[in-house]
Amino acid sequence: MATKHEKILQYIESLPVGDKISVRQIAKEMSVSEGTAYRAIKEAESRRLVSTIERVGTIRIEKKKKENIERLTFAEIVNIVDGQVLGGINGLHKTLTKFVIGAMKLEDMMRYTEAGSLLIVGNRARTHEMALKEGAAVLITGGFDTTEEVKKLADQLELPLISTSYDTFTVAAMINRAIYDQLIKKEILLIEDIVIPLKRTSYLKTTDTVREYNLLNAETTHGGFPVIDKHGKIVGIVTSRDLIGKHESDHIDRLMTRNPITVSLKTSVATAGHQMIWEGIDLLPVADEHGILQGVVSRQDVLKALQMAQRQPQHGETIDDLVKKEMEMDVSNDEMVIKFNVTPQMTNQFGAISYGAFTTLIVESGSFALKKVKRGESVMENISIYFIKPIQIESTITVKPRILDMSRKFAKMDFEVYSEDLLVGKALATFQLLER
């Protein structure tokens, strides 16, 4: 049974794209308190169903699929550039295909300006008008205004006319940064990408017995199942180990493991994998914020997803990607050495390698070394950097990882970092080894 919160979210999702909503309107429509309506709208905003703009209100926008996440709506552009909407409010939900910087003659500008694009330009009213007629939205930089005729045209064509106090170069950089951040988000695998949905999930109820477990086990060959109550809320998990020597008439709710670890659809696959390995579990139930079962993920699903992700090209580079790109492995005389170049993106305000980049270098070096020995993946469990000297920008450094102890599930490693034969860093780390 859906909660009030879920019903409001379903209602918002059913609204036509472009509709304006408010706390008072939702509260009246759904017969809930304004506090409940406010929380649901905030949740809808985090799910990218709506966008809230100062002095305009909250607008229903198109929910973007993961493959199109890098395409921004004009409503999101307003928030990115701290803009003010001068006209065309009804078009804020639309998605822009590209942006054009208006730093050329009018006729040249119009060659690049087309329907669905955003023209970034200064106080040139004639250009604003021409761009709107071409079907493009306009972002006016420098805090300038435009004519009343242009504002009326924007309203008539439902094309946003936005003003920002930032200059053209800064605005372009801000939009680029937002798109880049979206690309990085696009590459992060979440549980929602791999979950086995509820309609395909096998589960048991608290009223079921061992007999029902045996029937479900024979049908699916799965060893474990989530257990739900009459409201669909997950209350436990039961595996074959729990039922050894039990009678077929015994009730599941007396044998199950209560309060199982659960994840949400927005949990990253990496986090779920870490939990499963650390806790030694093979099945994770997926639940919403109210504990209602939404599906399951298995350890096999998680490991397969992580392996697939490593084979995909990365569109938006994180600091981890930048560090990996600069690493080069050299194995000679049975000793593994990793060479690394310190680039400007990895430095702090003093021009030395940042602590974060240095930590990433140690972790990736350890993963490299373990993959060579174990031929499998690993996850860093803890790290202690107990000696570090400033390492200058554009230095070439070498990392010497050494395995101190290794069991089936864990490895302890020691690291020495050199710059031109001078010792500049030492660290100890423990890694969890992922079973294939």
Automatic annotation (TrEMBL):
InterPro entries: CBS_dom (IPR000644), CBS_dom_sf (IPR046342), Diverse_CBS-Domain (IPR051257), DRTGG (IPR010766), HotDog_dom_sf (IPR029069), Ser_kin/Pase_Hpr-like_N_sf (IPR028979), Thioestr_dom (IPR006683), WH-like_DNA-bd_sf (IPR036388)
Protein keywords: CBS domain
SUPFAM superfamilies: CBS-domain pair (SSF54631), HprK N-terminal domain-like (SSF75138), Thioesterase/thiol ester dehydrase-isomerase (SSF54637), Winged helix' DNA-binding domain (SSF46785)
SMART domains assigned to the protein according to its UniProt record, in alphabetical order: CBS
Signal sequence region: none
PANTHER family reported for this sequence: CBS DOMAIN-CONTAINING PROTEIN, CBS DOMAIN-CONTAINING PROTEIN CBSX3, MITOCHONDRIAL
Organism of provenance: Rummeliibacillus stabekisii
Protein name: CBS domain-containing protein
Coiled coil: none
UniProt xrefs under CDD domains: CBS_pair_DRTGG_assoc, hot_dog
Superkingdom, taxonomy of origin: Bacteria
Domain CBS: 195-254, 256-318
